[in-house]
Amino acid sequence: MHKNKTVIGLGIAVIFYLLGPFVLSDYMLYLVNLAAIATIGAVGLNILTGYTGLIAMANGAFIGVGAYTAAVLYTKLGVPFLLTIPIAGLMTAVIGMIFGIPALRLRGFYLAMSTLAAQILLMFIFNNWTSVTNGERGIFLAPPNLFGFSLVGDKGFFFLTVGIATLGMLFSYNLFKTDTGRAFIAIRDRDIAANIIGVDIFKYKLISFAISSFYAGVAGALFGFYMTYVSPEGFGLNVSIDYIAMIIVGGLGNLWGGLLGAIFVVILPEFVDKGIEIVGQFIPMEYTFAAFRQLVFGLMIIVFLVWEPKGLAEIFRRLFCWLKAKIFSPKSEMEPQV
Question: What is the domain extent for residue 240?
Answer without folding.
Answer: 29-326
